[in-house]
């Protein structure tokens, strides 16, 4: 039964025990060795899909999405279904009691009675933190406004690991909306924890990286950054190009959005200036910033990121619940 399995998994040696019951609002909530363990866990899941198919039998995930999503919500849900669990939730708060004025805290206190883990996306920065404090089950931030998107970063790290065999000693260009891009903020902050990374921050003046993120780079002894506005002039230096969408929903003024939205378009001509093994990442959705012709270039890694997002969410959901993956051996770390 689920109760038996839960009791057994209290003593299971195959996951980082301190992750059990952990809410992940930012990746600062978990250690770098736990992140490495999650990467290893996701690789195991990918190679043993049938073996892990009943890991979360009897478990329930809630997806509370107050903001649109395709990849994040569907991959959180698919992850739980592929582990044998079930899913409840809403995609758009208008059909929930949120439309009657119910607070995030009351919603989480309620939903905690129904489920084992919650994934929440909300347009306001800090909403996931409020949710995690109100809930009695682990809460995973699926994106809070322009702040953080930790599980996207886990997908990004898995993609770098598979392309380069490492997540450090890289020159990483981030291009587009670096002001509101929560995936950019999460990724920079996390890469700063893994060692040497040179960041090339490519944006128009109006969409530069927030100071609190730059401070994080400055606080390391191993990472550095330059801020530039020219993609063609810097692409040749990059190991990784992380493109982002200019996010219409974060602008107060439509004229500003229209002026800035097509500042950077990655196409086959620009790819000819790039290293032969550069990896192009994008959290998706894209609008115009990567021409469709780039999709067939072997350096395009953005649909690999999508797959890795599901695998990393399988790894994380089962780890915070504390369910044992059959046959799994943890990563040996010093
Ligand atoms: N990458 C990402 O967050 O995509 P969705 O908005 O479709 O979830």
From TrEMBL:
EC number of this enzyme: 2.1.3.2
PROSITE patterns the UniProt entry points to: CARBAMOYLTRANSFERASE (PS00097)
Pathway where this protein functions: Pyrimidine metabolism; UMP biosynthesis via de novo pathway; (S)-dihydroorotate from bicarbonate: step 2/3
Keyword Transferase: yes
Keywords: Pyrimidine biosynthesis, Transferase
Entry keyword annotation includes Transferase: yes
Domain of life assignment: Bacteria
Any matching Pfam family: OTCace_N
Domain Aspartate/ornithine carbamoyltransferase carbamoyl-P binding: residue ranges: 24-161
Swiss-Prot/TrEMBL catalytic activity: carbamoyl phosphate + L-aspartate = N-carbamoyl-L-aspartate + phosphate + H(+)
An example Gene Ontology molecular-function term: amino acid binding
Start and end residues of each Aspartate/ornithine carbamoyltransferase Asp/Orn-binding domain: 169-316
Class of this enzyme: transferase
Binding-site residues, L-aspartate: 100, 182, 245
Listed SUPFAM superfamilies: Aspartate/ornithine carbamoyltransferase
GO biological process: 'de novo' pyrimidine nucleobase biosynthetic process; 'de novo' UMP biosynthetic process; amino acid metabolic process
Positions bound to carbamoyl phosphate: 71-72, 121, 149, 152, 284-285
Role this protein plays: Catalyzes the condensation of carbamoyl phosphate and aspartate to form carbamoyl aspartate and inorganic phosphate, the committed step in the de novo pyrimidine nucleotide biosynthesis pathway.
Oligomeric form and interacting partners: Heterododecamer (2C3:3R2) of six catalytic PyrB chains organized as two trimers (C3), and six regulatory PyrI chains organized as three dimers (R2).
Family of the protein in this entry: Belongs to the aspartate/ornithine carbamoyltransferase superfamily. ATCase family.
Protein's UniProt name: Aspartate carbamoyltransferase
Origin species: Bifidobacterium subtile
């Amino acid at each position: 039964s689920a109760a038996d399995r839960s009791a057994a998994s209290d003593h299971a040696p195959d996951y980082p025990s301190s992750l059990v019951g952990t809410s992940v609002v930012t990746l600062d909530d978990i250690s770098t060795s736990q992140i490495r363990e999650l990467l290893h866990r996701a690789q195991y899941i990918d190679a043993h899909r049938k073996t892990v198919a009943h890991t979360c039998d009897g478990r329930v995930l809630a997806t509370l999405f107050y903001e649109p999503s395709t990849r994040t919500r569907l991959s959180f849900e698919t992850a739980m279904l592929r582990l044998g669990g079930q899913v409840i939730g809403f995609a758009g708060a208008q059909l929930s009691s949120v439309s009657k004025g119910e607070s995030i805290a009351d919603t989480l206190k309620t939903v905690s009675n129904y489920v084992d883990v919650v994934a929440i996306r909300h347009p306001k920065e800090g909403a996931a933190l409020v949710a995690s404090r109100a809930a009695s089950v682990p809460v995973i931030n699926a994106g809070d406004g322009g702040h953080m998107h930790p599980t996207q970063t886990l997908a990004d790290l898995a993609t770098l690991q598979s392309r380069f065999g490492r997540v450090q000693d890289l020159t990483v260009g981030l291009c587009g909306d670096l002001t509101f891009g929560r995936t950019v903020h999460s990724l920079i902050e996390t890469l700063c924890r893994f060692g040497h990374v040179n960041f090339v921050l490519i944006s128009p003046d109006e969409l530069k990286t927030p100071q609190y993120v730059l401070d994080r780079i400055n606080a390391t002894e191993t990472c550095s950054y330059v801020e530039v506005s020219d993609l063609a002039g810097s692409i040749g230096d990059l190991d990784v190009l992380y493109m982002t969408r200019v996010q219409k929903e974060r602008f107060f003024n439509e004229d500003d959005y229209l002026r800035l939205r097509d500042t950077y378009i990655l196409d086959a001509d620009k790819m000819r200036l790039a290293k032969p093994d550069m990896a192009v990442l994008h959290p998706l959705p894209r609008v115009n910033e990567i021409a469709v012709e780039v999709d067939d270039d072997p350096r395009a890694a953005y649909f690999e990121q999508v797959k890795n997002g599901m695998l990393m969410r399988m790894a994380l959901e089962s780890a915070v619940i504390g369910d044992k993956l059959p046959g799994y051996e943890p990563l040996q770390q010093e």
